[in-house]
Design brief:
- With 155 residues, the chain is of the alpha+beta class.
- It contains four helices and seven strands, in the order E-H-H-E-E-E-H-E-H-E-E.
- The protein has helices spanning 13-26, 40-43, 90-104, 121-129; strands at residues 4-7, 48-54, 60-69, 73-81, 109-115, 133-135, 147-153.
- The longest helix has 15 residues, at 90-104.
- It is globular.
Length: 155
């Protein structure tokens, strides 16, 4: 599938629907205290850039975000693609766009947190194929059995 990826505001009904679908997928997988979900309002902050993937008809089919921390580190957040486009490299295109912006901003280390339980295997494959490797907890994330942490050096 040829998706178009663009930076968009998260404060739209379309993006809210993607966030709602992502949360509905994630909520049953881990206890609430081990879920670190940004709201669309948080995603609209100056430190975060949101990318939306759209299909040929212009419908949103995926999203991802880059949240920056200081000069050298940034985090991949809110990665999600609709079930009907999974396996069509939409997630990889979003991850590529996020990484390209991180490099443009001078970020040297890109990190992320995802789940570590059954149901997250597609995410692990996406990140590992994208050159990310497992690492320890970072920032204020607790080191728990419910989280898997990844990083990628951009230097």
């Amino acid at each position: 599938m040829a998706a178009t990826i663009a930076i968009e505001t998260p404060l739209t009904d379309e993006v809210r629907a993607l966030v709602k679908a992502l949360n509905a997928y994630l909520n049953p997988l881990s206890p609430p205290q081990f879920q670190f979900q940004m709201t669309v309002e948080q995603m609209a902050g100056e430190d975060t850039t949101v990318f939306i993937a759209r299909d040929e008809a212009g419908r949103p089919v995926g999203m991802g975000a880059l949240k920056t921390f200081g000069e050298n580190m940034a985090e991949v957040k809110r990665m999600y693609t609709l079930p009907q486009v999974r396996g069509q490299r939409v997630g990889a295109a979003l991850l590529d766009a996020i990484e390209a912006l991180a490099r443009q901003k001078g970020v040297t280390l890109l990190k992320l947190e995802t789940g570590s339980v059954a149901g997250f295997e597609p995410a692990w494959r996406l990140y590992e194929r994208g050159g990310f490797t497992r690492c320890g907890a970072f920032l204020d994330y607790p080191d728990s059995e419910y989280s898997a942490f990844y990083e990628k050096a951009l230097i």
